[in-house]
């Protein structure tokens, strides 16, 4: 009886196999199908039941996430939630600051128009950045340059323009870029 040696180029169980991009499954579509299957199984097609099914399907699909070849689908909701929490925090902090500035006698603040360079170039990212800036008390987006490289912002109180620009980019633009990846 002959004994065959193991093949050298065989994939072991411990190795990760790269899934071709064309063979990757649309995880969102599978999540929706599983949520509908949940509603069929339970017999109730309410919004609450579909939401529960979607969350359960999301968790079930998250467990073997390496099989899908890319974990962007599972990271994006957390990045969006982080962006929302950052905005709420900035909204509260800037509203408090603006209220103190307005209520302080003498109105000793320096407003400025800042040219904020943009790293995010696609329309959704630029629009989201401009809107978050405008919704934050004390700042207002004025215009975007034709080449989409600069956002012009009016700031109510600016001590140092460069620090203010850097703060806007770190606070909003970086989380927006990560959330939209």
In short:
The protein is mostly helical and 181 residues long. The chain has helices at residues 27-42, 47-62, 72-103, 123-135, 161-179; strands spanning 112-117, 139-144, 150-155.
Give keywords.
10% strand; single chain; mainly alpha; 3 strands; 181 residues; 3-stranded antiparallel sheet
SSE blueprint:
Blueprint: H1 27-42, H2 47-62, H3 72-103, E1 112-117, H4 123-135, E2 139-144, E3 150-155, H5 161-179
Antiparallel strand pairs: 1-3, 2-3
**Any idea what the radius of gyration is?**
25 Å
Strand order of the largest sheet: 1-3-2
Oligomeric nature of the chains: single chain
Count of extended strands: 3
Order of helices and strands: HHHEHEEH
Please, how many helices? 5
- Sheet of most strands: 3 strands, antiparallel
- Overall average pLDDT: 83
Form type:
elongated
| Structural domains: how many | 2
Percent range for β-strand residues: 5-15%
Helical content band: 40-55%
User: What structural class do you assign from the helix and strand content?
Assistant: mainly alpha
User: N-to-C terminal Cα separation, in Å?
Assistant: 57 Å
Low-confidence region ranges: none
Question: What does this entry look like structurally?
Answer:
It is found in: Cell membrane. This is Na+/H+ antiporter subunit E. It is a multi-pass membrane protein. With about 180 residues, the chain is mainly alpha-helical. The protein is about 55% helix and about 10% strand. It has 5 helices and 3 strands; from the N terminus they run αααβαββα. It has helices at about 25-40, 45-60, 70-105, 125-135, 160-180, and strands at about 110-115, 140-145, 150-155. A 3-stranded antiparallel β-sheet has the order 1-3-2, with helices on one face. A hairpin with a 5-residue loop joins strand 2 (about 140-145) and strand 3. It is elongated, with a radius of gyration of 25 Å.
